[in-house]
Design a protein that fits this description.
The protein contains nine helices and five strands. It has about 200 residues and is α/β, with parallel strands linked by helices. The chain binds adenosine-5'-diphosphate. The site of adenosine-5'-diphosphate has 20 residues, from helix 2 and helix 3.
Length: about 200
């Protein structure tokens, strides 16, 4: 199975991504986690990534592609991928489609998780004390939601036009969100049992 998870900060991409990976046998690839791992390295690249993340700005497309491409390539050859947080810009979406074409695979669906800014902000602030993340602060959260609305939000219509968008209300308990996603994917013939 090959899926994208498209959602604003705080919608639950990470939680749902892990569950969908366990359900489908595909690999969960979280762009933010891979970038944070790189950011922890004491190198010029690590420092550049860390600075963008701490401000709540997107990491430049080329860096993201360099970090994500090997993981996606590897996963494509081993049961597929659940991409969480990638692509996040239109150029990244185009690059992701080109990569899939190069690997001779197609994307099955894009799962879009939506919730209001009020719900998202509350969740991120609740998580802030445990997450230890430099970007879980009220001012940075506001900025991340703005960046999402301006830069990532337009990908909803990009995938709608391509006929592969599955929209799910993220303002429900995690189990209900998972069940809704699985029901909608199964209706499209995308369930682990139905896959070759
Ligand atoms: P959230 O969805 O809660 O913002 P993530 O861990 O997915 O959490 O992302 C955290 C940060 O990592 C983003 O604010 C951004 O700086 C960087 N990042 C993650 N994915 C991408 C991407 N595809 N393109 C650019 N930057 C990214």
């Amino acid at each position: 199975m090959r899926l994208l998870l498209l959602a604003p900060p705080g919608a639950g991409k990470g939680t749902q991504g892990e569950r969908l990976a366990a359900w489908s046998g595909a690999r969960h690839i979280a762009a933010g986690d891979l970038l944070r791992a790189q950011a922890g390295a004491d190198s010029p690249l690590g420092r550049e990534i860390a600075a963008h993340q701490a401000r709540g700005d997107l990491v430049p497309d080329q860096i993201v592609l360099d970090v994500l491409t090997p993981a996606v390539t590897e996963a494509a050859a081993h049961g597929g991928y659940i991409l969480d947080g990638f692509p996040r810009t239109l150029p990244q979406a185009v690059a992701a489609a080109e990569l899939a074409a190069r690997l001779d695979v197609t994307l099955d669906a894009t799962v879009y998780l939506y919730a209001t800014d009020e719900v998202l902000t509350r969740r991120l602030l609740d998580r802030a004390s445990q997450s230890g993340r430099s970007d879980d602060r009220a001012d940075v959260i506001r900025h991340r939601l703005k960046v999402y609305a301006e830069t990532t939000g337009p990908l909803v219509s990009y995938y709608t036009v391509r006929g592969i968008l599955v929209a799910v209300d993220a303002d429900q308990p995690p189990d209900s969100v998972t069940a809704d996603i699985q029901t909608q994917l199964s209706k499209l013939g995308l369930s682990p049992e139905a896959l070759p």
